[in-house]
Amino acid sequence: MKKGAPPKIPGLVFVQPLGSGGYADVFLYEQQSPRMPVAVKVLKSDGLTDALRQQFVEEADTMAALGDHPYIVQVFRSGTSDDGRPYLVMKYYPPPNLAMRARAERFSVEDVLRTGIQLASAVETAHRAHITHRDIKPANVLVSAYGAPGLTDFGIAGRGAREGDAPPEATDDVGVSVPWAPPEVLYGQSNGDERSDVYSLAATLWQLLVGRSPLEVPGGDNSAYALMPRIRSTAPPATGRQDVPPGLERLLAQAMAKDPAHRPSSALEFARALQAVEQQQRLGRTPIVVLDDEGHTTLVSQTQGSPTGRAADDEDRTRIKAPQTVVAQPLGPSPTAPDGETRRRPDGGAGAPRWSPAPLPGGALAASGAPVRPAATTDPVTSQTAPLGSDSSDEATVRRAASTVGAQALPAPEPVRTSPLSRPPVLWGLAAGVVVLVGLVVFLLLRPAGDGGQDAAAPPTPSATVSMPGDDSAIGDGVFDKPSVTARSGAGSVGFTWNYPQPQKKDTFRLSYGPTPSDAGNPDRSRTVSVTTPTYTVKAAKGMKVCATVRVSRSGQISPGSDVQCETAQ
């Protein structure tokens, strides 16, 4: 199709062309009120069919439904020009897009991780709306003036039950983009699903690191017909960059596995794995931003489960308790306090202190002009109501003020010395009573064993014993017990099943396997798959030994690994 002329659109003034695709052109316009640049995507008139018109309308509806997401390009409006061509008015992202940038420069590992998590957030949000993109590639990721990615071009996106749709054609027009498409889509085995989008997203990140698509051969034949057999049969190579951590290399290889079952099961799982690499590299945590089933924006930390609504979000959210205020204590005694004791009267009472109870900044002076001491010299006390297992790395580090509960008391100020005769008689009586009471307590503590028949040196017997989990699993909604795995030999395969106490429907499983027990327990030498049912079968040649260990994943928490079980294929 040839490039078309920019149409006349009311309220918009044409500025310049931006690009051209298989079936549409994109132009830069200036909106007159309010004045701002906008991008306008216009269908080409050549070969314009009713099917293309309907697809264009669906793209507009899809992007409008998802456009509030910070990493999906926003659509302002749609319409039909005077010459009959449909158009979309979208937020303008200045060039270059990720494809242009990848050709000109190599992205840093930190930038790739951040971009991957942000795009995975957008893809996960689309999947929760029952929309698969089916054409994720660097050219379909724009970059805002502030450096944020924007996923665009939902022209061939799938909606709802995708099994009834016609398989997309592997062409440059309305179809898949071969270099980044998974094999099951290229060969018509699938119409594209969540794991297909994960594959394309991983291939996109690989290109940001290397500068070309994963199966492209520098200087070789990289036509669609040459690429398709490679994508079906050749494992994606490593990036070859020394600064790319092994964890990221493994994750990209897993996400581009030929078998969709071996890939991360969702974009959210892929994003969490990228967050784990960030944490291993001691990089800042990039938040995962998704929409829950009620349309509420949710920040998902690495340790949270998948929120399925406002209730689940409230249940799983990591809560940070607000800092508690510590009231500064003036050094000098109150003029009306006997014995040099400092007393506080109820607020609003006669003669109530006029100093503010808020803590003063370091170096500030109290009303008397004396510097204010901190209320405690120990480290800040963590709030006792904060949930166990909360990960403070998800939030900015906040140095909390010490809690007034259990705070270490200040040394008493030097009392004002007064004459003993000036003290009221009642105080002498109170002091004598305290001395008698202290003596009685000391006597009871030091007396030998009495009628109770207990040895004085024997420790007291507790009335109840509280057992805490002794394993290394996560605390909270996680799984404390490691699963019990059974291996069985089959014809050309080895099957594994497992069970564990108190299973839940939301549980998923990670099975790592290899030819020896040490391989299965070593993440560098094992192969890991994620499954949703407590069973998995590994295909193996006759006489081949397969060993596996299983972990249970719940709400982002991982159980201890099971004992390694091995069996030999028949």
TrEMBL record:
Gene3D superfamilies: Phosphorylase Kinase, domain 1 (3.30.200.20), Transferase(Phosphotransferase) domain 1 (1.10.510.10). The keyword Kinase applies. SUPFAM superfamilies: Protein kinase-like (PK-like) (SSF56112). InterPro entries: Kinase-like_dom_sf, Prot_kinase_dom, Protein_kinase_ATP_BS, Ser/Thr_kinase_AS. Residues 361-371, 451-469 have a biased composition (Low complexity). It is an enzyme of class 2 (transferase). Residues 12-283 form the Protein kinase domain. Residues 298-307, 379-391 have a biased composition (Polar residues). Residues 287-419, 451-474 are annotated as: Disordered. The keyword Transferase applies. Keywords: ATP-binding, Kinase, Membrane, Nucleotide-binding, Serine/threonine-protein kinase, Transferase, Transmembrane, Transmembrane helix. Pfam families: Pkinase. Signal peptide: none annotated. Its EC number is 2.7.11.1. It comes from the Bacteria. ATP binds at residue 41. The chain crosses the membrane at residues 426-446. GO terms for molecular function: ATP binding; protein serine/threonine kinase activity. PANTHER family: MITOGEN-ACTIVATED PROTEIN KINASE KINASE KINASE 20-RELATED, SERINE_THREONINE-PROTEIN KINASE NEKL-3. This is non-specific serine/threonine protein kinase. It comes from Terrabacter aerolatus.
